[in-house]
């Protein structure tokens, strides 16, 4: 059995952003040696890891050579070179989640096909190799307006996703491989965080409810537990576990879902790593998602996923029209409120809708937490100096 | 108003041990720039701070020059050069807790006199300038056997403290300034963590109950909340707040107390910094003691001190007779249990009774937590390879 604690064991993390930064709180807590690779010299992970390396996450040689130095590789961002990971696996290196899992998820077209093949409920869609094919498909009535357009590669946080309502919207789209998806008339967006270890132990967090900002298309509130019926929550959890098992996923998997008007659950997409929808867990859960990810990839026993208290997460995004050195205006006002904890990701510069941090609001009473969350959202402003 | 978050503000921390390491989780969370001074090149704080400086904490020049570089100075260990701190204050630098507070606490004789002067209940004692005076005092019956001997300087975790039962015990004592204190026949040892900010805001954590290891004289369990009557808890909290105010303390103050057989409360000693008796707060409290310390010294609003769930802390100390590269034997066994989180401080070498980490056990039911804590204690062993 490997000794991870205060030992020579080396964990490699691809990506050095805020997710990695929060993961490092827990590698520090366990005193696990970490190596981080990121292209940004000011990456939030730069301090707190044992070894920081500058480099391109999509470059085969860079990722391969980085991987050779460590005992186990994980990632905090999906846009990494999968071929290098596959080669490392061939040479006996542990990669969690695996290159195969990542490959199935990285391309949104492949991800959607995977759901179909594995009988996982998801909205109907058609994959198009480029814009001409897409336009042709619309013209031939293969997909009706309005629909959801998604770039198959590289989209996140509302980038690479559009609702296409008219020919004019269609014209504005970039010429890339894409999927066109039926617009789901949903009641609610839900997410379930699943942790799974190599030995197959699986634990699921309570269902969370998500509210999106109408313009920025970024999550505005994540509410745990979701205010839905128990039987719907049970159904969501079952589907999420099925997704995790189908992908043979190891680590944290965030499964985002739609709850339709008919109480059907459709899988929207997944993130094979700690996720925004699990940030509430730092304050609210028995085991936070970052510690759980570490436990899972190291094949350690998974921690309890129950909540200690209700939790709500509010994203701190840069106010529109502000660019430059960041100031968290009125942060002292929100810190006066019970159960309010700001998390500042460490980006010195703000810009419109940039994810700069988040605030967690915890309370025994979720309705009370919701009220405080709304106050928090109205008071704090992420502006430039 | 100062902007602390992702700004140029510099926080200096004297001492780079495990307390500093845990404090850095929260400076990272707030993205506050940190400078750490410690004599150990392998100090647990070395990574996760922005700037690490090797140096002697008792050296005037070192501490003074370090202090000049930062905007505000705090410490995670009391054995630092107070004169340098006083000079920095004179030159307008903020030092929290203040040099005056630290001076009153550093010397245990002074600390005890301070309690007398401020009408804070404490066990009767006599201060002796050296061993000859002590021996004379015992011979003249000024202090009766058995009594508690404490070196006035540099003692912690059972070092510099002895119970003197006989002339033979007396002979073994070192020749240093000391106090001889009446042995208190106590029911229970309690502690209260008080947070106080420069503007005088004060918040108190629930009373915790401590159980000591009989040989190592180190805390074995810290139980929150203490299983005592409400009126005794209220009395303990009042006394702790009085102590914090009397010291004009800023930051976290841990007030350790005895509960006597007659339900009297006597202050034993204080620690002017985050403390072992507050470690449970990382998992169990609305605001953990490290975040609270940061909030307090920066004069930010203090966070809620209520517990989310019951919490018990078990120290991980090196097993007797084991010296060398550390192994946390059976750590996977304890990680299977609900609400169990190990904290590994990052010391590569173990030795008998060395503080290597701690384990927190949380549960809605404190009696259930106590059962799990005992299992944890019996299962995990800190041994050498």
| Bulk shape of chain A | globular
Beta-strand percent range of chain A: 25-35%
Query: What is the CATH topology descriptor of the largest domain in chain A?
Result: D-amino Acid Aminotransferase, Chain A, domain 1
CATH top level class name of the largest domain in chain A: Alpha Beta
Low-confidence stretches of chain A: none
Query: What structural class should be given to the helix and strand makeup of chain A?
Result: alpha+beta
> Rounded to an integer, what's the Rg of chain A over CA atoms?
21 Å
For the record, what is the CATH homologous superfamily label of the largest domain in chain A? ATP-grasp fold, B domain
Number of discrete helical segments of chain A: 12
Number of domains of chain A: 3
Total beta strands of chain A: 21
Largest interface: A-B, 44 and 44 residues
CATH architecture classification of the largest domain in chain A: 2-Layer Sandwich
Q: What is the quaternary state of this protein?
A: homodimer
Termini distance of chain A?
Answer: 52 Å
Arithmetic mean of pLDDT of chain A: 94
What can be said about the biggest beta sheet of chain A?
9 strands, antiparallel
Function (chains A, B): Catalyzes the ATP-dependent conversion of 5-aminoimidazole ribonucleotide (AIR) and HCO(3)(-) to N5-carboxyaminoimidazole ribonucleotide (N5-CAIR).
Keywords (chains A, B): ATP-binding, Decarboxylase, Ligase, Lyase, Nucleotide-binding, Purine biosynthesis
Protein name (chains A, B): N5-carboxyaminoimidazole ribonucleotide synthase
Catalytic activity (chains A, B): 5-amino-1-(5-phospho-beta-D-ribosyl)imidazole + hydrogencarbonate + ATP = 5-carboxyamino-1-(5-phospho-D-ribosyl)imidazole + ADP + phosphate + 2 H(+)
């Amino acid at each position: 059995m490997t000794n991870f604690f205060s030992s020579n064991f080396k964990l490699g993390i691809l990506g050095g952003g805020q997710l990695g930064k929060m993961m490092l709180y827990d590698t520090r807590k366990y005193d696990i040696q970490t190596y981080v690779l990121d292209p940004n010299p000011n990456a939030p992970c730069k301090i707190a890891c044992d070894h920081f390396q500058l480099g391109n996450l999509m470059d085969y040689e860079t990722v391969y050579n980085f991987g050779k130095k460590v005992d186990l590789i994980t990632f905090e961002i999906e846009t990494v070179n999968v071929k290098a990971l596959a080669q490392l696996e061939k040479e006996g290196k542990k990669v969690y989640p695996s290159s195969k899992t990542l490959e199935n998820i990285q391309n949104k077209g492949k991800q959607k096909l995977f759901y179909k093949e594995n009988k996982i409920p998801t909205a109907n869609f058609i994959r198009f190799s480029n814009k001409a094919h897409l336009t042709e498909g619309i013209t031939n009535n293969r997909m009706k307006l309005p629909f959801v357009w998604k770039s198959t590669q590289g989209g996140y946080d509302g980038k690479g996703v559009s609702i296409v309502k008219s020919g004019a919207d269609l014209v504005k789209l970039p010429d890339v491989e894409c999927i066109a998806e039926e617009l789901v008339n949903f009641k609610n967006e839900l997410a379930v965080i699943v942790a799974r270890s190599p030995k197959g132990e699986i634990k699921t967090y309570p269902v969370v409810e998500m509210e999106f900002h109408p313009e920025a298309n970024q999550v505005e509130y994540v509410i745990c537990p979701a205010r839905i019926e128990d039987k719907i929550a049970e159904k969501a959890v079952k589907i999420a576990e099925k997704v995790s098992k189908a992908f043979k996923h190891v680590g944290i998997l965030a499964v985002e879902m739609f709850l339709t008007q008919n109480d059907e659950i459709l899988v929207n997409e997944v993130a094979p790593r700690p996720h925004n929808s699990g940030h509430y867990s730092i304050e609210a859960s028995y085991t936070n998602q970052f510690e759980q990810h570490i436990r899972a990839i190291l094949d350690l026993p998974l921690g309890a996923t129950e909540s200690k208290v209700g939790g709500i997460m509010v994203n701190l995004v840069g106010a529109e029209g502000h660019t430059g050195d960041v100031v968290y205006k009125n942060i002292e006002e929100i810190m006066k409120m019970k159960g309010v904890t700001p998390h500042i990701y460490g980006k010195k510069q703000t810009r419109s809708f940039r994810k700069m941090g988040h605030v967690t609001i915890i309370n025994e009473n979720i309705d009370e937490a919701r009220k405080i969350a709304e106050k928090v959202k109205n008071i704090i402003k992420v502006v430039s100096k």
